[in-house]
Amino acid sequence: MVVKRNNRGFQAFGRIIKGFNVPEFTVGLKWRGADLQTMKNTIVGPALTIGQNFEQVSFDLGAGKSLKASFHPSEKSNILPLIIIIHGLAGDETSPNVISAAAYFSALGFPVLRLNLRGAGPSAKTSIGPYHGGLSEDLAHVVDQVACRNYGAGIVLYGISLGGNMMLKYLGERGADAPVKAAIGVSAPLSLKAVQRRIMERRNKLYHNYLLLGMKKYAGQMAGHYEKILLNKAKNAKTLLEFDDQFTAPAHGMSGAEEYYNLHSAQKFIDRIKVPTLLIHAQNDPWIPVGDYQNRAWSVDGAISLLITDDGGHVGFHAKDHKVPWHERVAGHYLNGMLAQEQQI
């Protein structure tokens, strides 16, 4: 089902959620366009800041390894689900988009968990990186262990960028058995290979170099875990593609980037998702081709609800009429609709 574009700044595809009211999206002149939308949180910082009422918690990966996360409790944890935020490439729990989402969801009363993937943030000291977009077994460990802790009334997954690919793969693998109430993906790639082609375009050179530098920084923390020759390949990589081909893939027992992208792209798993899932993407995302979304058939009877905006960039969606990014407010409306629907059953 497709809702024709009106004057509200977005198109809607897929499943209709009763009570899900999507606010209008209008971009102001100051932050209009793909790049300004993408970089605003990095340039000026998130509109909201996260409080200091949190504790660092661990999730066992086996073999003496663990992932670290920051848990923000809530007085409403007995009625509201925990939101697990999964960061993107070269990010961690302190990434501006993670802080922004955590602050907003906390303000709504939700308990929040800012997860650090392998080799990222505090997890660098307790796990062997690198993480990659398909390392869904790590997310499975976290979700299963959270389900046994009294962190909230259920679980919601919130995947940002590459973290969204990991989230979608996990949900597809687990299907109806996923112990998750709902999921939200923002600017998530569906084809990892398509993302690599896009990020290596000339117009994205600054983005590419920034991300490559971040991944090399991660690799520099892994001395002693891998052979020096493999670490040198990471250090000397000239592109993200070369980094994945010569380091990320071999570090996880894969032959190269081609195998990594083919095995772990979300597009192979998304049709098996049974958990209600909202995806938000922008036509002008400079990193992830919107065609990967537009060329799929989204069923009104499926689990996926999709919103595509004209503007918004990559995890931007900064509107002129509200300091909180539009996609975060939409996520709040979506969760309220889901919870209201749940109470009526």
In short:
It is built from eleven helices and ten strands. It is an alpha/beta fold and 345 residues long.
List keywords for this structure.
single chain; 10-stranded mixed beta sheet; Rossmann fold
Describe the protein in words.
With 345 residues, this protein is an alpha/beta fold. The chain folds into two domains: 2-191 and 265-344, Rossmann fold (3-Layer(aba) Sandwich), CATH 3.40.50.1820; 199-264, no CATH class. The protein contains eleven helices and ten strands. It has helices spanning 34-44, 96-107, 136-146, 162-174, 192-199, 205-220, 228-236, 240-251, 257-264, 291-294, 326-344, and strands at 2-3, 10-14, 55-62, 65-72, 82-86, 112-115, 155-160, 182-186, 277-282, 304-309. Strands 1-2-10-9-8-7-5-6-4-3 form a ten-stranded mixed beta sheet, sandwiched between helices. The chain is globular. The two termini are 24 Å apart.
What is the approximate shape? globular
**Count of structural domains:** 2
Strand order of the largest sheet: 1-2-10-9-8-7-5-6-4-3
Distance between the termini: 24 Å
Q: Which regions have little confidence, pLDDT < 50, spanning 5+ residues?
A: 1-5
Q: Please identify which CATH superfamily of the largest domain we are dealing with.
A: Alpha/Beta hydrolase fold, catalytic domain
- Structural class by sheet pairing and helices: alpha/beta
Mean pLDDT: 95
Q: CATH first level of the largest domain: which class?
A: Alpha Beta
Query: What's the Cα radius of gyration?
Result: 19 Å
Number of strands: 10
CATH-level-2 architecture of the largest domain: 3-Layer(aba) Sandwich
Order of helices and strands: EEHEEEHEHEHEHHHHHEHEH
Looking at the structure, the CATH topology of the largest domain is Rossmann fold
Helix content: 25-40%
Number of helices: 11
**Biggest sheet layout:** 10 strands, mixed
Beta-strand proportion: 15-25%
